[in-house]
Design brief:
Layout lengths: L22 H12 L5 H4 L5 H6 L4 E4 L3 E2 L9 E2 L9 H12 L3 E6 L10 H14 L4 E5 L7 H9 L4 E3 L9 H4 L5 H14 L4 E8 L5 H13 L4 E6 L16 H14 L3 E4 L15
Parallel strand pairs: 1-4, 2-3, 4-5, 5-6, 6-7, 7-8, 8-9
Helix pairs in contact: 4-5, 6-8, 9-10
């Protein structure tokens, strides 16, 4: 992992992806636009949007598209969020039915401005998805909810098949990259979920290329496995804009494979590791 200059760097050949052109992609794009839905695929500038949308797979982002936090790695807008759209849960649920999605992934912006931090919309959305799609499985990619156990309990009690929360980076870089988040709090949230219900699969993801050292990555992986996490994803950080935290270096695909082998030896049930891997990449495989 060679450290490069702090500039907006040219992507290496293994990062480049084709422009989305498929029929399925354009149909999903129209559906999202028609119902005024949000996806992390768009808001987070995911490089896999073409591949996933071509397969009819999307990660729906609820509670609007403006986050109350200002993480330096994230392409989602930050500021004062709009009012809650109580029709959003049903619109998401019906869109999933139209798309014939078998495994749905939900995420959300942070809503620290709300007393329950948006938990009621989370519960309502999952209920509506199951009502319109009885045989579906669900992954809930949740915020840390400031570590409030009473709120996290409500997500656990509705029993999504997978609950994920991303650690994002190593301990040393957390304050620089995530700002309002806390490394240990994220680990505690993940461990608490597994302790409350061992049948729910837990999952987290970390980004590489932020300036971390290999030994720090391995130490982070050890911290995550100690927190009883089942599934780990690792991918290359890509700078959304010049205003965001810079890419320090690009990690070679071979290094991702090396880390995957290390993770599996540690005891993770599933490790998704590669330059273009994101938290929801191949999410349907993580429940098997």
């Amino acid at each position: 992992m060679k450290k490069n200059m702090n500039v907006f760097q040219k992507k290496p050949k293994w990062i480049k992806v084709k422009l989305p052109m498929s029929k399925n992609y354009h149909e999903l794009q129209k559906l999202v636009s028609l119902h005024k839905l949000n996806t992390i695929c768009q808001s987070g500038s995911c490089p896999n949007i073409g591949e996933c949308w071509d397969k009819g797979v999307a990660t729906f982002m609820i509670l609007g598209n403006i986050c109350t936090r200002s993480c330096r790695f994230c392409g989602v807008k930050t500021g004062r969020p709009n009012k809650i759209d109580w029709k959003e849960p049903e619109k998401v649920a019906k869109s999933i039915k139209i798309l014939k999605i078998k495994h749905a992934v939900l995420t959300s912006v942070n809503r620290d401005d709300l007393q329950d931090m948006g938990c009621s919309i989370w519960i309502h959305t999952i209920q509506k998805i199951r009502y319109f799609n009885p045989n579906i499985t669900i992954e809930a990619l949740i915020p840390d909810f400031k570590g409030e156990k009473k709120i996290i309990d409500k997500i656990i009690d509705i029993k999504p098949e997978v609950i994920s929360h991303n650690v994002e980076t190593v301990s040393r870089l957390t304050k620089k990259v995530r700002i309002q988040a806390k490394y240990n709090r994220s680990l505690e949230v993940l461990q608490y979920i597994k302790e409350r219900n061992r049948n729910i699969r837990t999952k987290t993801g970390i980004m590489l290329g932020l300036g971390e050292k290999e030994e720090e990555i391995i130490e982070t992986m050890k911290d995550i496995i100690k927190s009883k996490v089942d599934i780990l994803t690792m991918g290359q950080y890509l700078q959304p804009s010049l205003k965001h935290y810079p890419v320090r270096f690009f990690v070679f695909p071979e290094q991702f494979q090396k880390l995957k082998k290390i993770g599996l030896k540690m005891g993770f049930k599933y490790v998704e590791s590669g330059p273009l891997v994101r938290s929801s990449y191949h999410a349907e495989k993580h429940i098997k």
